Amino acid sequence: MEEMKFEEAFERLEEIVKNLEKGDLTLEESLQVFEEGIRLYRFCAGKLDEAERKVEILLKDEGGPRRGSFLQKGENEE
Predict the structure, then answer these.
(1) What is the rounded average pLDDT for all residues in the chain?
(2) Domain boundaries, the chain
(3) Which long-range contacts (CB under 8 A, 24 or more apart) does 42-51 make?
(4) Residue 40 burial by CB count (10 A; 0-12/13-18/19+): exposed, middle or buried?
(5) From 3.90.1720, 1.10.10, 1.10.287, 3.10.20, which CATH number describes the 6-61 domain?
(6) Angle between helical axes of 27-61 and 6-22 (0-180°, round to 10)
(7) CA distances from 51 to 6, 33, 73 (A)
(8) I want to staple 37 with a disulfide (CB 3.0 to 4.6 A). Which of 16, 28, 55, 60 is the partner?
C-alpha cells in the first residue's frame, strides 16, 4: 500500500464507506471490505500525521508563524 497515493487511498476509503452504508453486502463481504477500510484509514492517518510533522518542522525552521504575516500592505493588526 505504500506505493499508493494518499488521494487514491482516500477515494477508495470513501467508496468502501458508501458500500457499507448501502447494506447490500453479505456479512463476509462486509468484513473483508471493513478490514480493507481499516488499513486504508491507518495509511491515510499516517500520511496526514507525516504531513503535519513536516509543516511543523518548516514553521519551526522559519521561526514559527508570524502574526500579521498574511496581512496585506495597509492592513492593521488587531
Answers:
(1) 85
(2) 6-61
(3) 43/1, 43/4, 43/6, 43/9, 44/6, 44/9, 44/10, 44/13, 47/6, 47/9, 48/6
(4) buried
(5) 1.10.287
(6) 150
(7) 11, 27, 31
(8) 16
Q: What is the pLDDT of residues 35-65, one digit of tens each?
A: 999 999 999 999 999 999 999 888 887 665 5
In a 3-state reduction of DSSP, which class is residue 15? Answer: helix
Give every CB contact of residue 68 below 8 A, 6+ residues apart in sequence: 77
**Gap between the Cα atoms of 52 and 28, Å rounded:** 36
